[in-house]
Structures are given as C-alpha cells and as structure tokens.
Amino acid sequence: MAGNSWILHRNSSVNFEKIGDSAHTMLIADASEPYEVFGSTTNWRDPELARNTGPQSFGNCFPGETFVLLADGRVIQVPLVENERWKLLRGREELRPDPLATQRPDTPWELGDRPYVPRPRQQSGNRNR
User: Fold this and answer.
1) Complete DSSP assignment for the chain
2) Annotated region Disordered: where (predicted)?
3) Could you tell me if residue 65 is inside a domain?
4) How many domains are contained in the chain?
C-alpha cells in the first residue's frame, strides 16, 4: 500500500475540508513493486501515473484491479480499464503538491548493517499457476 502523494506527502497538512468530496478521493491504494520499507516516511505515489507501469505507480500483483481506501473510510476495487474513474480519485487539482514536497532522499534505507535496496520489478504471471 502507498499514500496518495496529493494528500499524504512530506509536511502535508491536508484536512477533510481541503479534500472536499471524501467519497471520491483516494487516501491510499495498492502499490506496485518495489515496495517501501515498512514505516517509510516517504511511502507515497503519484496518482497521475498509469497503474502498474513502474516503481512509483499504484497497482498490484494482480494487474486487473487496484484496491483503494477512500477518504470517507470505504474500500473500493477499481478495474484497470477504468482510467477515467482512476483520474477522479486522485483529488481536486488544488491538492496537487509542489514537486519538492514529494522528492525522496537519494540515500537508501539502512537495515542494521546493510542498505535496503528494492528488488527489480517483476512481471506478474498467471496467478493460477
């Protein structure tokens, strides 16, 4: 899972009043690999990127669907073919953050005595294999 960078980015202070239509605004959703370290403070993704297209996109290992937690608390399933609906879930244009607010540090995470290096993105196979 990863946060919607339009709402959950570095030093953000977005409240429900700013979100507006919480029934149609994504807070978090399934994330494509590579995953962030658990508890990462930079675990957000840009909702404008097409799903399952790269390391900073939303999506999931079953590429036909993405599960989304909306700001009103509901969880919905958005099929990959519903691109217009996906665009509406990102939030109002006024929520778009300054690109500096969503930059990640250049240094990798440290896990004990070794750096965390994300695995390369793998192609999903048939889930029934």
Assistant:
1) -EEETTTSSTT----HHHH--GGG-EEEE-BPSSPPPTT-TT-EE-TTSPTTSSTTSB--SSTTEEEEEETTS-EEEEETT-HHHHHHHT--GGGPPPGGGGPPPSSPPEETTEE--PPPP-----TT-
2) 92-129
3) yes
4) 1
